[in-house]
Amino acid sequence: MRPTKNCMDSLCITTTLLASICASNVYAAAEEYQLVWADEFDYTGLPDSEKWGYETGYVRNNELQYYTEADPLNAYVSDGHLQIIARRPHATHPKVTSASLTTENIVDWTYGKIEVRAKLPTEKGMWPAIWTLGSNIREVYWPKSGEIDIMEYVTSKLGVIHSNTVYFDYDLNTKQQKNGNATRIEYLDAFYTYAIEWTPESIRFFVDDKQHHEFHIDVVDKDRNPFHKPHYLIMNLAVGGAWAGEPDYSSFPATFTIDYVRVYQKPQSQ
Question: Where is the signal peptide (predicted)?
Answer without folding.
Answer: 1-28
